[in-house]
Amino acid sequence: MLRGLYTSAIGMKAQELLLDNTANNLANVNTTGFKRSHLDFADLLYSTLQQPGTEVAAGQVAPTGLQIGSGVRATGTTKVFTPGTFEQTGNSLDVAIEGDGFFKVQLPNGEVRYTRDGAFRLDNNGQLVTTNGYLLDAGITVQDGISITKLNIGEDGTVSGVLEGSPQSAVQLGQLQLARFLNPAGLSSEGGNLYAATPASGNEVLSNPGDEGVGILRQGFLEGSNVEVVTELISLISAQRAYEINSRAIRAGDEMLSTTSDIVR
């Protein structure tokens, strides 16, 4: 049996994965804080019929070898943390991170997650939460008497508000911090614009915005997706063509086997 049949079949599977990854990137082109994924490939094992540099005569070595590969495999997806586009919303509860870092949030079960999505809201207790209702780990609570329009989130993460009737006195409500990781590409995507720390990402390092290399905060802005539609469309076309070429290789292998069968007859 021709090994090229299996090699081409593996190639088609790899292109299917590339198509799936590209489709996910395109589907999230308008998702707040979304970071595109890049699919990494590696070639598979080789059958070495002749090692490069083999001595073929006295004092003479072969300049090349004879090795036949067995296909390709996907080795992983890498999150690309380039900045997304910034959109001015005018909403005082929208906060974008300009630079590195993640907001730290708590799930109802007490587990910690991280996000770049700064579209915050107030719950029925006046606490800052994500659009999914998850509490910010900083535990910011807006007191009664402070209008959302009088809420100020500084570049350094300080949160303050002005009580109605006391325009001259600001009330300190808390401090937002940002988490950094030694290897952010090692974070696990959990859906819902959330990431989870893994042994590959390393432990979180919390800092105030603007300190120790973390980004600063921009109130009234949201960070959009960093997906570039043109780039993804090129990837889509590339995957489609590669899939087609691999299928043609299978067809060619089938025709070769058919020719062999005809000789036997």
Helix/strand-derived category reads alpha+beta
Rg (CA only)? 27 Å
Low-confidence stretches: none
Arithmetic mean of pLDDT: 92
Describe the global form: elongated
Strand order within the widest beta sheet: 10-9-13
Alpha plus pi helix count: 2
Helix content: 10-25%
Written account of the structure:
By secondary structure, the chain is α+β, with helices and mostly antiparallel strands. It folds into two domains: 1-80 and 228-264, no CATH class; 85-224, no CATH class. It is built from two helices and 22 strands. The chain has helices at residues 3-27, 229-264, and strands spanning 37-43, 46-50, 55-57, 60-61, 66-69, 72-79, 86-88, 95-98, 103-106, 112-115, 121-122, 128-129, 135-136, 146-153, 158-163, 170-175, 178-180, 188-191, 194-196, 205-207, 216-219, 221-223. The strands form ten sheets. A three-stranded antiparallel sheet has the order 10-9-13, with no helix packed on it. The protein has a three-stranded antiparallel sheet with strand order 14-15-16, with no helix packed on it. Strand 3 (55-57) and strand 4 (60-61) form a beta hairpin. Helix 1 (3-27) runs antiparallel to helix 2 (229-264). The longest helix is centred in the C-terminal third of the chain and has 36 residues, at 229-264. The mean pLDDT is 92.
